[in-house]
């Protein structure tokens, strides 16, 4: 395949790349005592991108014969030529270390048959349903992307990549007296089925989802306002990804995000160091070679509170004099590479979690991302829904709270950080990040204590 | 199969071979599409994209022993050949063999009215879209830029796209159903913000779509968005209170229509996740609200001759004067309730049928937006909502984007850092006004909706 792609590009005078991507997706979902979904999908083809007079053209096709690839290249060249008549700014590409050779991103093991996986999911849903009579809705969903890519470009990339990303969702709905509450546990990995099962014990996750939904039936609300909170690793991951990470994506920086021009400035507490690292083994955003063919490596975003780097593709790196480190990503062959995060996280600190809690007179211990997910602006104003919360009174964890959302300006929140625990975990690998196209990412960190605005109820 | 084979040929081949392999019933759904898209990023043309796609999804039902129903398998591929149809059938049969029996699985029966094709819906196919090239798509994107940037130099178009699709779908099943449809769609969507010194406005979004190119005016979308974000630059905080909110159609789409669509979805009703299980004929919200789903709106993005299973949908009264009238069904969920599908099977060639609306509409009220504002003693206009809505419980909480504070019937100022929270199912009983104009947001049509009793958290 590498030789075929090279031969098609031989005729091009400027920059061009071809990315062949075959994905076999498996989705199994059991819901309320029935198998709601068991599907296997094959999506394969090539994305062809070229640069003419500093303008991109991109064409995707499922015809990967030599003739099909040449037609796609010709169409892409024509699109780029037409764009060159309208586009104001011209694209140049920064140099980068290109991926060459074989990249296997996970420990390859023997995958169970689809029959065994279906049985596991169906049994898990039955267990969830049987946990309590209060469970009125139960869903267990498994997703697997089995990917093979060949990436060749005119700057020397010639990479063959094998990848496997798997995730599991356990979703419980509890009902009583007309009230419905949900409990969700989800986790994802880059790796095999075995890696997935080692990352999360299915029985424990079932217990946790059911318990969370049931306990929330009797939980109360908290008045809105400013609170001292302790964020768990999942919420720290969401903060790192949604509220900070997107603002340092260089395309958003160039659009005027809040961190434009702030490299070298203090943007967070000295206790905060945040990185994006595609080479974190097992994390769901793992990416050794990106979809421009660039080798991935760790990018230090914030170091001891100081903003150090943005996340780049080759185009933005040329404009901002940065270094492309593997953040150009495309979800399928039909998508063009965009600047995306991989695994984004805050490094652990030195504080003890119990001590952190004991030092809070009146606050909230927040855990898990809620049903509504998280969103943020280029101004770094964010809003996350929180799966669950406990009031902290006089240094002790107290009653359960539900319906909590938190918001604020992410960098102001990071400046308010006064304690970072020594714990660490990735906890955001089950879902997808959305930015015109999905991407598998991961995020996490330690427990972090800070100040945020909590949206609550006013009677 | 040859290169000249049509989608219907592939469907018929798959049905025939599936039956030979021992399936009790087979359904094949084929899509062929040509997609063009022009992206804008940071005020400039980004990447013109072209894509040609064809793929087939195969569903097999295998009779389970003892009259327990059928076992279902699904697989899809976009690698089209006689042998890939075979391998996809093999995968589908393997899944069916491993799946538990379901007594409610069935395929659609051909309807007498569909002999020789389904009924007519005006304006589904526009030659002006089908004949477009990448250069034409680029001109529409340029018009959007003119509309937005020509209004005010402080505008930044963070990202926008102009996308057209012309497609053909075919469905065949072993019950003798054979249907085909040609359709075109043009959709423009954008995310825009404004920067003035240290002031950064909220992100605001705009969406417009139609099957007819003439209905998507890129220049006007850009101009209207620009006006809105400039108006949200000079914002002030407000205090916390409990009061009225006027949701614009964008906010009403997320806070009002999405939970309604969720709660009338038979999958959610039957899985216990809908609050409206067993509520047919009951008052579930204010008499001021009526909701219909109409698959035959001329040129409507969601309009269609038949659904994902080949059932011909008709206009559906879902809520009339606040009384729940019906749920949305596909074939399986309809059989669970002992009735006939009402044609709301959703999905594509790459997945099993789900349940979704076609064109969902909240009926207009009798008052102008100005009259709604005039009737508001204290409240907020919520232009856009960035937050979470849990459609199961109805709890919502999040940030107001582009909001305005109202006092004594007058707009006082734009607001910042304001959150709203409440329970939509409770608030739907407290609708105090619905505007008399509908905005078309792709496949949704909504008025402004005024609700009372919302928790508003300011600084």
Tell me roughly what share of residues is in helical segments of chain B.
10-25%
Helix content estimate of chain A: 10-25%
Cα gyration radius of chain A (Å): 23 Å
Judged by helices, strands and strand pairing, the structural class of chain A is alpha+beta
Strand elements of chain B, count: 25
> Rough shape of chain B?
globular
Number of helices of chain A: 10
The quaternary structure here is heterodimer
* N-to-C span of chain A: 65 Å
Mean pLDDT of chain B: 92
Number of domains of chain A: 2
Main sheet of chain A?
A: 7 strands, mixed
User: Uncertain segments of chain A of ≥5 residues (pLDDT<50)?
Assistant: none
Total domain modules of chain B: 2
Largest interface: A-B, 85 and 82 residues
Distance between the termini of chain B: 67 Å
Total E-strand runs of chain A: 24
Strand content of chain B: 35-45%
* Dominant shape of chain A: globular
Strand pairing plus helix content of chain B: what structural class? alpha+beta
What would you note in describing this structure?
Chain A is an alpha+beta fold and 459 residues long. Chain A is 22% helix and 40% strand. Chain A has ten helices and 24 strands. In chain A, the strands form five sheets. In chain A, strands 1, 2, 3, 4, 5, 6 and 7 form a seven-stranded mixed beta sheet that branches. In chain A, strands 11-10-9-14-23-20 form a six-stranded mixed beta sheet. In chain A, strands 8-15-16-18-24 form a five-stranded mixed β-barrel. Chain B has 459 residues and is an alpha+beta fold. Chain B has two domains: 7-229, 2-Layer Sandwich (PmbA/TldD fold), CATH 3.30.2290; 235-459, no CATH class. Chain B contains ten helices and 25 strands. In chain B, helix 4 runs parallel beside helix 5 (218-231). The longest helix of chain B has 17 residues, at 82-98. The radius of gyration of chain B is 24 Å and the shape is globular.
């Amino acid at each position: 395949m590498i030789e075929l792609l090279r031969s098609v590009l031989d005729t091009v005078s400027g920059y061009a790349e071809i990315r062949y991507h075959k994905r076999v997706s498996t989705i199994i979902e059991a819901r309320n005592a029935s198998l709601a979904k068991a599907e296997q999908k094959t999506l394969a083809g090539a994305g062809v991108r070229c640069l003419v007079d500093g303008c991109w053209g991109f064409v995707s096709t499922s015809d990967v014969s030599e003739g099909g690839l040449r037609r796609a290249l010709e169409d892409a060249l024509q699109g780029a030529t037409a764009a060159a008549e309208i586009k104001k700014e011209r694209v140049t590409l920064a140099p980068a270390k290109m991926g060459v050779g074989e990249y296997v991103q996970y420990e390859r093991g023997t995958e169970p048959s689809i029959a065994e996986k279906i049985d596991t999911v169906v049994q898990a849903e039955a267990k969830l349903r049987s946990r309590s009579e209060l469970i009125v809705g139960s869903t267990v969903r498994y997703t697997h992307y089995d990917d093979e890519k060949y990436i060749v470009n005119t700057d020397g990339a010639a990479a063959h990549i094998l990848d496997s990303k798997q995730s599991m969702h356990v979703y419980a709905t509890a009902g009583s007296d007309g009230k419905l509450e949900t409990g969700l546990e989800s986790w994802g990995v880059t790796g095999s089925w075995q890696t997935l099962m080692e990352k999360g014990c299915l029985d424990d996750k079932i217990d946790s989802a059911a318990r969370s939904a049931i306990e929330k039936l009797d939980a109360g609300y908290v008045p809105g306002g400013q609170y001292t909170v302790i964020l768990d690793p999942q919420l720290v991951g969401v903060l790192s990804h949604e509220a900070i990470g997107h603002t340092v994506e260089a395309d958003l920086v160039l659009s005027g995000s809040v961190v434009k021009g702030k490299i070298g400035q203090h943007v967070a507490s000295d206790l905060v160091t945040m990185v994006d690292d595609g080479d974190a083994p097992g994390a769901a955003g793992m990416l050794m070679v990106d979809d421009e063919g660039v080798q991935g490596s760790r990018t230090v975003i914030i170091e001891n509170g100081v903003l150090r780097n943005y996340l780049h593709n080759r185009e933005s790196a040329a404009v901002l004099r940065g270094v492309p480190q593997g953040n150009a990503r495309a979800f399928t062959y039909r998508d063009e590479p965009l600047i995306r995060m991989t695994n984004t996280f805050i490094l652990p600190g030195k504080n003890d979690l119990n001590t952190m809690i004991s030092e809070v007179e009146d606050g909230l211990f927040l855990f898990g991302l809620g049903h509504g997910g998280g969103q943020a602006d280029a101004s770094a104003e964010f809003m996350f829904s929180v799966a669950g919360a406990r009031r902290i009174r006089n240094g002790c964890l107290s009653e359960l709270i539900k319906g909590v959302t938190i918001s604020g300006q992410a960098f102001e929140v990071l400046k308010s950080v006064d304690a970072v625990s020594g714990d660490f975990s990735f906890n955001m690998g089950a879902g997808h990040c959305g930015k015109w196209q999905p991407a598998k990412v991961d995020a996490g960190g330690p427990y972090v204590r800070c100040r945020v605005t909590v949206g609550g109820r006013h009677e | 199969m040859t290169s000249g084979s049509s989608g219907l040929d592939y469907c018929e081949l798959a049905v025939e071979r599936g039956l030979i392999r021992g399936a009790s019933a087979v359904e094949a759904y084929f899509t062929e599409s040509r997609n063009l898209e022009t992206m804008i990023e940071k005020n400039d043309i980004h990447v013109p994209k072209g894509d040609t796609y064809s793929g087939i999804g195969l569903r097999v039902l295998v009779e389970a022993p003892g009259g327990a129903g059928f076992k279902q398998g699904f697989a899809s591929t976009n690698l089209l050949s006689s042998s890939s149809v075979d391998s996809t059938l093999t995968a589908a049969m393997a899944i069916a063999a491993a799946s538990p029996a379901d007594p409610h699985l069935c395929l659609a029966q051909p309807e007498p009215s569909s002999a020789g094709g389904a009924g007519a819906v005006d304006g589904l196919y526009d030659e002006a879209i089908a004949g477009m090239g990448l250069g034409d798509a680029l001109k529409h994107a340029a018009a959007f830029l003119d509309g937005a940037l020509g209004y005010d130099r402080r505008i930044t178009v963070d990202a926008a796209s102009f996308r057209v699709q012309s497609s053909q779908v075919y469905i065949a099943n072993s019950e003798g159903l054979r249907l085909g449809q040609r359709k075109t769609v043009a959709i423009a969507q954008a995310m825009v913000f404004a920067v003035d010194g240290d002031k950064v406005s909220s992100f605001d979004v705009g969406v417009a779509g139609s099957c007819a190119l003439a209905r998507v005016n890129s220049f006007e979308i850009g101009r209207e968005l620009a006006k809105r974000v400039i108006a949200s630059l000079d914002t002030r905080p407000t205090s916390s209170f409990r009061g009225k909110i006027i949701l614009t159609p964008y906010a009403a789409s997320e806070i009002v229509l999405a939970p309604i669509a969720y709660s009338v979805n038979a999958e959610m009703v039957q899985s216990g996740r809908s609050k409206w299980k067993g509520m047919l004929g009951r008052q579930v919200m204010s008499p001021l609200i009526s909701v219909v789903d109409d698959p035959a709106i001329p040129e409507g993005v969601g309009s269609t001759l038949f659904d994902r299973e080949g059932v011909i949908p008709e206009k559906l009264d879902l809520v009339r004067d606040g009384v729940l009238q019906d749920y949305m069904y596909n074939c399986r969920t309809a059989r669970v309730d002992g009735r006939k599908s009402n044609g709301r099977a959703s999905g594509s060639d790459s997945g099993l049928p789900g349940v979704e609306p076609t064109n969902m509409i909240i009926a207009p009220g009798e008052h102008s937006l100005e009259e709604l504002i005039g009737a508001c003693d204290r409240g907020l206009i919520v232009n856009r909502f960035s937050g979470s809505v849990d459609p199961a419980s109805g709890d919502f909480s999040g940030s107001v984007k582009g909001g305005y504070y109202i006092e004594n019937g007058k707009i006082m100022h734009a607001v910042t850092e304001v959150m709203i929270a409440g329970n939509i199912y409770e608030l739907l009983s407290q609708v105090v006004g619905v505007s008399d104009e509908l905005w078309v947001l792709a496949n949704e049509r909504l008025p402004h909706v005024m609700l009372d009793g919302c928790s508003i958290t300011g600084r």
